[in-house]
Design brief:
This protein has 285 residues and is of the alpha/beta class. A 7-stranded mixed β-sheet has the order 5-4-6-7-8-9-10, with helices on both faces. The protein has a 3-stranded parallel β-sheet with strand order 1-2-3, sandwiched between helices.
């Protein structure tokens, strides 16, 4: 999250908003805990905030329970219309607007990429958070795409460290395995553990964000998160200057990135197809 916060602050400064000069920024981190989200939502509203930036659907829903007046700019929320956060993408109404994470169709792309980089994979563990709307939707999209690739899918709930280790140890009994990590808060919280287990069991893995590959993961495909936070700063600027969230359309990502770690591929004994390398936005060697 540090990179996103830095990008957000830098963009605000470009727009003439400097922390502790003409704007004060308070941060709260809920770590995927619903109780913490509710607590911090109440705290931030009580501070008489002029605008609140919320990351992820659970934090936005917690804020929705507390206020329908304070302007809210959300980031990394999937399908805000179905969740009842906004009336429509073009005309949000109410006090919220922001930037959607991605369409669920991207999840089928993760399967495709894993089969391209590791054609022998026939069993895939999908690490997801079943307690989140986004986790359920991503799993459903992957399951829909699975038969076309001849893949057997195993959902793995990502909640507690011990449970993750037990589930993946059980999954490791077999051959031709790989993993897909979905884009929800809990997998990101347990990122280091998940990546260590993937390395231990020699599993090819597809991740939703570049940070995983920068830290040694094999391949990632997803929206450019830094860009989303910079765009969120632009909406904050417009709201602070008097515009209403209801007049600012909810926007989809404009930048997606495919990142491949060749060092990790070599360690796994994989030859990345040249066509895939040619499509990559970044190749880490």
């Amino acid at each position: 999250m540090a990179f996103q916060v830095t990008a957000f602050q830098q963009r605000l400064q470009e727009l003439s908003w400097t922390h502790d000069v003409n704007i004060r920024i308070e941060y709260r981190w809920g770590a995927g805990d619903a109780g913490q989200y509710r607590k911090y939502a109440a705290e931030l509203v009580a501070l008489a905030s002029d605008v609140i930036v919320a990351v992820g659907g659970s934090s936005v829903e917690a804020l929705q329970e507390v206020t329908r007046a304070v302007p809210i700019v959300f980031v990394q929320v999937t399908d805000p219309v179905s969740r009842g956060l906004v009336a429509s993408l073009a005309r949000p109404r109410g006090n919220m607007t922001g930037f959607v994470q991605f369409e669920f169709a991207i999840c089928g792309k993760w399967l495709e990429l894993l089969k391209q980089v590791a054609p022998r994979v026939s069993r895939i563990a999908v690490l997801r958070d079943p307690g989140q709307f986004s986790g359920i939707g991503q799993m459903a999209a992957i399951q829909s795409a699975g038969p076309a690739f001849g893949i057997e899918l195993t959902p793995v709930d990502v909640r507690e460290t011990d449970a993750i280790e037990r589930s993946l140890k059980a999954f490791a009994q077999g051959a031709n395995q790989g993993i897909i990590v979905t884009a929800t808060a809990k997998p990101d919280i347990h990122r280091r553990l998940i990546m260590d287990l993937a390395a231990r069991y020699q599993w090819p893995a597809v991740y939703p964000y570049r940070v995983y590959v920068a830290e040694g993961g094999l391949i990632s495909y997803g929206p450019n998160v830094i860009d989303e936070f910079r765009r969120a700063a632009g909406y904050v600027d417009r709201i602070l200057k008097g515009e209403k969230p209801s007049h600012l359309p909810v926007q989809a990502p404009t930048k997606y990135e495919l990142v491949i770690n060749l060092k990790t591929a070599k360690a796994l004994g994989l030859d990345v197809p040249p066509t895939l390398l040619a499509r990559a936005d970044e190749v880490i060697e």
